[in-house]
Queue: 3 jobs
Job 1
Amino acid sequence: MYTSKELELLELLEEKGYLETKILAEMLATDVATVEAMLEKFKQDGILLGFRAMVNWQKINRHDVTAFIDVKVTPKRGRGFDEVAERIYRFPEVTALYLMSGAYDLQVVIRANSLQDVASFVSDKLSPLDSVVSTTTHFKLKTYKHDGILFTPHVEDKRLNITP
C-alpha cells in the first residue's frame, strides 16, 4: 500500500509533469532524499512510466493524421486478448492500445503521415492478423481537450441575452 505522501506525489506529478526534486520536496513539505526514494520506488514498481510534454501541434500546422481504429477480435484460448494485443502494439505506428467494453474489443490509436498511410496500416498490417474479425476507423479532426488540458482558449460569449 502507498502512503498519503506517496499518493500526493503521484497526483502532483500527474498534474504538473516533471519538476525538480527540490521543488517537489518543498511542495510536499519533506526532504529531497525522501522524494528521490519515492520516485525510485515508483519506477521500480512500474507505476511511474515517464514524463511527456503536451504539445499543441495544430499551432504549428503539422499535418500528421491520428486515427482511432476499433477492432473486433477473436480472443485466443488461454491468452484472451493479450496475444493479439501484443502483436498489435508492436507495430511502430501504434501510439496507444486499449481493451474496451462495448461493440469492439480493442481500440488502436495510430499516428501517420497521411490517410493513405492509415489505410495501408489497416489493410496490410492489422486486418490480416488471424484474430482480427473487423475494424472501423475514425480520424481525429481537431483536439479541444486532452488529459485535462484545453487546446483552444475559452472565448467569452459576447452576445446579448435574449428573453422571451
Job 2
Amino acid sequence: MNLSATLLLAFGMSMDAFAASIGKGATLHKPKFSEALRTGLIFGVIETLTPLIGWGLGLLATKFVLEWNHWIAFVLLVFLGGRMVLEGIRGDDDSEAETPHRHGFWLLVTTAIATSLDAMAVGVGLAFLQVNILATALAIGCATLIMSTAGMMIGRFIGPLLGKRAEILGGIVLIGIGAQILWNHFAA
C-alpha cells in the first residue's frame, strides 16, 4: 500500500469514531480541549490496537473474526446508544448544572472498541497483503486521534443548541453506526 492509500484508509477508519465523538461532545457541559484530547487519545490508542489484533487474528482464525465482528460492534453500539437515549429521555427536566463535564474512562473505552471493530476486520484483511502493519495501524490511530478530538469540539458547540436532546441524538448516532455496520456486512 502506498502513502495515499494508507492515509485514505486511516481517515476512513476514523469516521465512526468521529461521529461518536460529536455525540459524546454534545452530551457534555462545555467540554474543554483537554477532555476532547483525552477522548481522542483513548479512541486513537484503541483504533491503533484493533488492526494489530485483527492482523494477528487474521493469521490465526480469519473465518471466526469475519463472521462475528459486525454482530459484536452492533450489540455494543446499540447498547451504548440505547442507554444514552434512555438517559436523555429520563433527564428532560434536569438542569444544565447536572450535565457531566467528563465521560467515564470505561464508557469511552467501550465506545472506542465498538467503533473500532471495523478496523479489526481491516487488520484481518491486511494480514494477507504485503503491508507494514505497524505503520498502517499508527496511521489509523493518529487519524482517529485527530478526528475524535475534532468531533468532541464540534459536539461542544452543537450540545448547547440541542440541550438534553443532544444525548438522545448521540445515542441515535451510535445506534445508527451499529446498524450501518450490520447493513454493510449483509449488503456486501
Job 3
Amino acid sequence: MARRIVVRDERPGDDWHPEYPFADELDPLRALAAETAADPEFTMYLVRRRSDGLAIGGFGFFDAPDDKGTVEFGYGLVPSARGAGLASEAVQLGLQHAATRGALIALADTELGNTPSQRVLEKNGLIEIKRDQSHVYYRRDLVVR
C-alpha cells in the first residue's frame, strides 16, 4: 500500500483524507515501498478516524529496535483531525505495540514550537531529555502491560 499512497492510487475502501499523506511522509513511504524485507511489526501505519473510517494521518517507527531495544517513532494528523485526542490514542497504541514486540525504550522528537505534539508525548509518559535550537527530544522506558 505504501507505493499506492505515494502515487495517490486510491482504491475503494482506502478512504484517504485529501490532505494525506504529508510531504514529510513521502520519503519514508517510498523507502517502505522499495523495501523487500521490511519489518512487518516496526513499520508505518495509517491512522483512521473511527467515526467515518477516513485515513487522517500516520504513525510509524523509523526502524526495528536497536541492540539496546530502542525504537524511534513519529506521527502526524491532517490539521482538521487535530485536537480530538486521536494523536494521543495513536501514540498510546503504537507504544503498546512496540512494548509487546520487545522494544524497551521509545524515542521521539518534535519541533521546538510544536507544543500540541509535546503535550501528546508527555500525556503518553515520554519525558523531555534534551532540547536544542529547533527540537525537543523525548524518551520513555517501555513495559508490557
